[in-house]
Fold:
Amino acid sequence: MPTNEPELIAAAQKGDVPSFNQLVRAYQSIVYHTAYRVLGDGDAASDATQDAFVNAYKNIRSFRGGSFKAWLLRIVTNSCYDQLRAKQRKPTASLDALLIDPDNPAPGLGEAREESPHDHAERSELAYWIEKGLQTLPYDQRITLVLSDIDGFAYEEIALATNTNVGTVKSRLSRARAHLREFLLQQQELLPASYRLKNRMEETKNLRIENV
Amino acid sequence: MFNRKNRIQDLDSYVEERLSEYIDGTLSDQDRAIVEAHLAKSERARESLDSLRYTISLLKQTTAPALPRQFTLPVTLRAPAQGTPAWLLWGLRGVAVAATAAFVILLTATLLRQPNGGIANAPAALSQTQLPVNVALAPTALPYAAPARNSVTANPPTAAPAAGAAPQMITIEAENAEPVFPITETPFAAMSKALPTEAPLPTMEFIPTPLIQSQPTSQPNTQIPKPTTGPSGVNSDANAAGSSAPTGGLPALAPPTKEQPTSPNEPSESTSEAATSTIQAPTQRTTSLQMPEGVVNVSQLRVRRGPGVEYRAIGSLRLGERVRVSGRNSSTTWLEIEYPRALETEPGWVGATFLEVNAPLENLPVVEPPPLQEPGETPTEALPSGESKIDTPTPEMTGEPTNSNFNATPEPLESPTPLH
Structure:
């Protein structure tokens, strides 16, 4: 069994499933996490993840080098999109409307989480709102934001994964971040004072938490 | 012409739009200068920058949800495309072949002791220590890899182990190699045809390669280097029928040294394969030697009398145990196996997703479910099928095939047509 990625990929391209499964194990967390953040639903994320890996295996021979992770995430992006389309109950005209149900702007969030934010000790309220906020974003912005700020991709990789150019990525990312920021600020009234974004920012200024 | 107010507002917007890139450090020098100059003058801009930075930092800190299950693909998946021909790959893996050969010899020898029909003149070939290996190494017709692959490489521990529910988990993350694989999985039917002579095997499924001497050691396994179960699907493809040598009394089976008292393909597992028991007692096992073999890929797998949770359990198997697979139900959600008992085996059924079988499942004969006897019995631990795609990570998995998301996913997983 080859142990490094290029060898595993080569073996998988020859049809060796166990080698491919090594790749699956290496990437399934990030793939699932991405799908989960994009789709906001555990079951949908599972489906998208599985579809993505099956498609990746089917098309493995079309991988010609470069970042396997980016190549894979592109497949994941498509799988997520397919999941969203599959789950739409009503056809709509615009792309954004198609992917955000106005009556349920955060679809699946309620089902995906088994615990309410209240009794989930480990996660902060803020994390909950992050998830919720992500679901309010239009799909393109959401996927861009997830790929950039959760998966850590560079603009070029995101452009490849979403089949656009860097300029589009930059503008989507900028808007996505701003939207999410606005969403969080709006929740201030709903959150206890200690969780207010503004206050948090004051604290972090002192702590220099900024990861960016 | 801009009046001053407009310029400021324009500048506000201009900078605002570029804060994201400023944070990423991808602005041009000129733009960066403009932004920094503005930031110095505008508190509003600074606040905007801070809140943006903070939002991003929150995103970066989001924790990944636990993996609900493993997303590995079943080994029976068809290769995406045919690569190099099997024989070529064989040529490249002499060592593996040699080791495999040795193994197969032993197995064959072992099994030949049984007066089962099938393989006629294996002894001749076997004594030459040639065939078996080739036979054992099925061509890409069985595009699947050794079930229990020892992942030598460190796998990032995912949440899977915790869950214990990994229906598709193929690798046994055990340290020790399971060298048995390459051997044990021989396409018996083919093998039996091929064995007859030393002559080149029918090209169809066998790769005539010279064998190395069979090792008389009793632990052929250990000689099989891990790479044997190499990336080539061919290698593993060899693993078809169980660890059995061709059935058929081959009395002439050569040197006693080849015959090992212990089942060579069961170095560590307790599932007494037919090989083990048959060595002692030459019970008739006409079909068992031609059967494919399956390896358990969950921590514990319940074995039932019939293909359904309504049948009572007759026992269980552990992760890594091997059993011969004798059939399936019509929907291929359950597999009939030979569940090993003390001196023999009895038919049992397990959920199909929990066995990694070294042959395409569709080739298995469809077996009629036994009658549901003992109407008084209630099914135990019936999973709410369809609800969850994951088997509950209880210490004992019932192995019920829920509406396996696997079976529900795109056909390629089960389709016999090659994926291209």
